Amino acid sequence: MQNGNAKYIWELLNTVPDPEIPVISVVELGVIRNISFANKSYTISITPTYSGCPAVKTFMDDIKSCLKENGIRNFQLKLVYSPAWTTEWMTEETKEKLKKYGIAPPSDTVICPQCDSKKTELISEFGATACKALYKCSDCLEPFEFFKCI
Amino acid sequence: MSSLFTYTLRIADSSLILGQRMSEWCSKGPTLEEDIAMSNISLDLFGQANGFYEYASQLDGSKSADELAFRRNEREFFNHQLAEQENGNFGTTTVRNFLHDVFNFLFYTQLSSRKDETLSALAAKSLKEVKYHLRHSTNWLIRLGDGTKESNIKVQVALDLLWQYTAELFEMDKIDTELLNAGIAVDNKALKIEWDKIVNSTLKKAKLNRPEDGYMATGGKKGIHTEFLGFLLAEMQFLQRAYPDAKW
Question: How many CB pairs (< 8 A) connect A and B?
Fold first, then answer.
């Protein structure tokens, strides 16, 4: 590990689930911005999703324990604000996982995750977590959560 | 205290105090959706405040972000007086937040392209959230103003009451001017034109009358506040004052 193995750290972090949406990892969420190695230590740059999201503190603790459990002790977590987190960093694969979990993934057209209908209606721009809005499907009439575009 | 420290603290204070006001709605919202909305907005504002406090703490070096939030007295807070005004009814909260959200939207838009890298990054982040806060307060202002006779009267009364706290938003003091010349601060005065445009067009849609400028309050930047801030701080700071360094 003389030169560090950032790829290995990425792989480890990809096993740390988002505390509120456990089907996706913190890497898939896009909050891990960079992993560098210098002076025998890793620096992991993390960006918050929403300024006040309480999950940020939780997943930072989860990342620390994951690394420690895997024998990595020489690291530091650095909070970075620029560029600001955006749902545009989310891959198609991650969006598919959200959909299967019952959350409509971020997109210009809000599609019902139950019946794929495009006839959906906003109930509230605010939901159970900072990143979600409440919608209702006009076809199957099921209410659902939408991962907001930001 | 450096000018940059004070400037950063002022931004943090307005976010924290407005955030605390919004948190007072938690479990008391008029509908479940609104309760969730206002608690979410509160959380965003606390998060924004935290970012600015952390930066202020780095600049100052002697106090942590928590100490800045919980161990300063009323006269040491530099928030806009508008932010500390009581929630009143849902219409009063809507008006207060709308007036502040328009300002925040314009302010962060400008700050996000200024020279200080941390301030501009925090501004760009905050702006994303302030945009939907503004959409929320605008929609409600129109719905209530252009709603029933009763709801129209309530928001008009709130508007007439809170108008006196709007002039302060655009004030420039020595610190603002010094940092504006250094390319760091926003020219608050210059924001007034755009603020007027947005406020006027929304009030028109909401069938509300723009109040005349009468007595206009001032003092937030110097730590002078209305009677409401002391009570707010007493509640917000109680735990950390009674049990210093208490942890969850």
Answer: 67
